[in-house]
Design brief:
Layout: H1 11-21, H2 27-32, H3 49-53, H4 59-74, H5 76-94, H6 96-112, H7 117-127, H8 134-146, H9 151-164, H10 169-179, H11 185-195, H12 209-215, E1 256-260, H13 267-270, E2 279-282, H14 295-316, E3 320-323, H15 328-338, E4 343-347, H16 353-366, E5 371-375, H17 378-383, H18 391-395, H19 398-404, H20 413-418
Parallel strand pairs: 1-2, 1-4, 2-3, 4-5
Helix pairs in contact: 4-5, 5-11, 10-11, 15-16
Length: 419
């Protein structure tokens, strides 16, 4: 086998992970997914989240493979988990002020730590895994060394951070966002808000010692160490719902270049029947936080974008280039000028750092007569309109969405009838 120069951050690695998971994606996943078995022992979950988050493999590819193997009923739990991630993305797209408030609060809290010794001490104890709560300290170490935590452990962690340690949820979300390989603006921010009762108003999540002991199979038992109540937090504003921005398409006769970002690393399927004149990869990982981003997260994201850029260059037979600075404006203008581009095409960036960078670049490009086009994938076009409220609105639509996306399995009634 040819060694992969980008490590695990490649499309090939994504499909290898999918193939390894497929036999376990049905009833085994449903019965074992809630167990946190420790570092290196996470074969009870898919391990696909870093690849899906960066779209080294996309949701329809994953769903198609799982449904073909297990059918919609057999894989229902895993299918719902895929749509949970899509729900969070769509919900934040409809409520971008939640993201803006979170970003502002993180910056303010970091700036204020010096003036609040008590908060700073608790915060640093949590970051350095010295709280004395064995399970929590172990999860800090696992997160910072591997870039991963099992989902149930993430919920326990967030609850302990907020209710036992008395720390602001925004700083906890920032800690996750700086270290997770699958760090996603929507899933990360909204999951933390869910734990503390802000996403589903009044509904909180309390980490209980007995639950941790059961689902870690006795590895941890923090009896008597955890908060016994989880009162919901409140915020002093209502986040209004916005309509989705209109879909865009590539202008006829445009001389365009393809921009690959960390939000979508499958550029070939973005452009069916279209051929760009050049391709550039650009990352903005460092803008996740005012604090340093973890090495593993930076390495994975940089590798994913680099591998996708080179893959696109080979696929289309065009020159590839990388932007080595967080300042995309000058890099994109120079790239457009050197390749005679009048248009730059990229995958639609949901609310988050990439969208922020593109918004700034759009203004600079427009002043130089270069148009920026963002193409939204059909999966998002179909799913996001159902994400304005709670998850169960989307959940009820899953069977219909699977049919619309032509994703069926061996137990699908319409397929049996057609056969």
């Amino acid at each position: 086998m040819i060694e992969d120069p980008f490590g695990r951050a490649s499309r090939r690695a994504a499909f290898e992970a999918l193939q390894a998971f497929l036999p376990r994606a049905g009833s085994e996943y449903s019965s074992r997914r809630d167990f946190d078995l420790g570092p290196g022992e996470h074969d009870n979950v898919s391990g696909l989240s870093p690849y899906i988050r960066h779209r080294l493999i996309n949701e329809t590819e994953v769903l198609a493979a799982v449904l073909q193997q297990h059918g919609a009923s057999g894989a229902s739990r895993f299918v719902q988990e895929v749509f949970w991630r899509s729900y969070f993305k769509g919900w934040l797209e409809h409520h971008p002020s939640v993201w803006r408030d979170y970003r502002a609060k993180v910056s303010g809290l970091i700036d204020s730590l010096g003036a609040n010794p008590g908060l700073r001490k608790r915060y640093e104890s949590a970051l350095h895994a010295t709280t004395g709560i064995e399970c929590f300290d172990a999860w800090v170490t696992e997160l910072t060394t591997t870039g991963y935590l099992q989902n149930h452990a993430r919920m326990w962690f967030a609850s302990i951070w907020i209710y036992t340690l008395g720390l602001p949820w925004q700083l906890g979300a920032d800690f996750f966002y700086r270290h997770l390989l699958d760090a996603d603006p929507a899933s990360n921010t909204l999951s933390w808000r869910w734990v503390c009762g802000l996403h589903t108003k009044g509904k909180t999540y309390l980490a209980r010692a007995a639950n941790i002991s059961r689902y870690t199979r006795g590895r941890f038992d923090p009896d008597g160490l955890l908060a016994e109540e989880a009162p919901p937090l409140h915020e002093g504003k209502i986040h209004s719902t916005r309509s989705l921005p209109p879909a865009q398409s590539i202008p006829a006769d445009a001389r365009f270049g393809l921009l690959v970002t960390e939000d979508d690393c499958s550029p070939e399927s973005l452009l069916p029947g279209e051929t760009p004149h050049a391709v550039m990869g650009a990352v903005t990982t460092e803008s996740r936080s005012p604090l340093p981003v973890g090495f593993g997260a930076r390495r994975f994201t940089t590798g994913a974008v680099a591998e996708a850029t080179e893959r696109a260059a080979r696929r289309f037979g065009i020159p590839a280039q990388s932007a080595h600075s967080d300042d995309w404006n000058d890099a994109l203008l120079a790239w457009a000028g050197s390749n005679g581009l009048d248009t730059i095409v990229t995958a639609y960036a949901p609310v988050g750092p990439v969208a922020e960078r593109l918004a700034m670049a759009r203004r600079a490009l427009a002043s130089n007569n270069v148009e920026l086009i963002q193409l939204r994938r059909s999966y998002d076009e179909r799913v996001w309109p159902h994400t304005t409220r709670g998850y169960f609105k989307l959940k009820s639509r899953i069977p219909f969405l699977l049919r619309e996306l032509e994703l069926t399995g061996p137990d699908d009634a319409s397929q049996r009838a057609a056969g």
